[in-house]
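re: ur msg from earlier - yeah i can do the manganese (II) ion complex, just paste it... oh wait u already did. ok heres what im feeding in:
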Amino acid sequence: MRLCRFPDQRIGLVDGEHVRDVTAALASLSAQRYPFPAHDVFIENLPGLRAVIADAAQSAPALPLDEVRLQSPVANAGKVVAAPVNYKKHLDEARADAEIHHQNRIAEIQNVGLFLKATSSIVGPADGIAVRHPDRRTDHEIELAAIIGRRADRVSRKDALDHVAGYCIGFDITVRGPEERSLRKSIDSYTVLGPWLVTADEIGNPSGLDLHLSVNGETRQKANTRDLLIDVPALIEWASSYYTLMPGDVLLTGTPEGVGPIRPGDVLDATIEKIGHMRVAVRAA
Ligand code: MN
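and the outut:
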């Protein structure tokens, strides 16, 4: 199942080149009162909603996909957990390029640990990326994003994938510089999620997926998730050994080699196998 979000608070089931508006399925969620849950209630309830969504799609009009403004498929992420330098060749390029490492010690991920990005940085492909510090180098990073579906507190690698609702393409846009990653990567619009959430059953094993990113038609990043140093189940085991992962939490699994600068006016095209393609425009903030 491929689920998207679009204005105004609509949920869509992606069906080939069309989107079926299945927002009516949200009516079966229980009403929430203050203090509202700090996680994503739609994603939490997705297992039970699937039949309702499929039903609603039967009678929903088909909107042309290319006319739908795709927003982040996750509305209420509680946190964005991200893996730094999780591909060997990206580790090598980061260590070799002073503009990337900025005298920061680029250590292996096992020593650095994971970092968190502000959820206020999340946007969808139609929102685009708004560059805030045009005087500084700002880079693209394409990453496989796993969306947590079930509360995960100290789960083992063996059980980890049972806690994933689905996957999408993620951009971890980054200002290069000496500051902490959480500052440089948390600027508004610097976490792009899209084009939709593909439920985990359609992906199966998240290792072995081709990733591709081009800027203005020129290939920049081309890799495969089988080359992750720490794979998705191990990332979930590791993250959940420190904090509980909740439905809607986003896990950015790290970017492969080929990172490079983006500027206002650029157009990014990203594809991940079994997920799809998204186009994202870059503008000045
Ligand atoms: Mn990254």
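cool cool. Residues 80-284 form a domain with the Fumarylacetoacetate hydrolase; domain 2 fold (CATH 3.90.850.10). ping me if u need the other ligands too
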